[in-house]
Amino acid sequence: MSDPTALRGGIDETVGDEATFGVVTVSDRASAGVYEDLSGPAILNFFREAVKSSWRAVYRVIPDEKSEIESTLKTLCDKEGCCFIVTTGGTGPAPRDVTPEATEAVCSRMMPGYGELMRNISLRHVPTAVLSRQTAGMRGKSLILNLPGKPKAIRETIDEVFVSIPACIDLLEGPYIVTNEAVVKAFRPPGLIRQEKPAPAA
């Protein structure tokens, strides 16, 4: 993206820690410049609206090549230190839709509940959501989540799914993420909740 400030957001005046997010658009045509990527920016815009604590993002646009998806995910996890990586695109039944396979290849453990939840959400909007093969998994202390490819479907999905993401990242010993509750009210068991900093005296 041309504006580097778009890759940062949130504020420091919360109980949260700075988080690093990965955003990966998987698309032959977008990576070749045939059309502008709108899906990655939709995810970044969600972070700007929903995450109150400080964050930065690493954004990539790559083709539907399994080896390149795998190497990108490994770099974001192992070198960039992303606690949460979101992919968009490549989750359907078409021959070049290989994002789920690449995700599974780099993860040590899978989180099938996220795929089930995302399909249930999307099925409320379109019957072809049953064709989606979205999945999620963990690599080290990183959570990787496959989202749909269209901006509208991205927001329909991530606005609901993100409710549990901060707690999952807590359990992976990652940064403490504070959300803007007007957009997403994160759910945490009581033992994972930090107390807000007291307001300074007038």
TrEMBL record:
Instruction: Give one GO term, molecular function aspect.
Output: transferase activity
Report the pathway entry.
Cofactor biosynthesis; molybdopterin biosynthesis
Instruction: List the transmembrane segments.
Output: none
Q: Which GO terms describe its biological process?
A: Mo-molybdopterin cofactor biosynthetic process
Domain of life of the source: Eukaryota
Keyword Transferase set for record: yes
NCBIfam families the UniProt entry points to: molyb_syn, PRK09417.1
Q: What is this protein called?
A: MoaB/Mog domain-containing protein
Organismal lineage? Eukaryota, Viridiplantae, Chlorophyta, core chlorophytes, Trebouxiophyceae
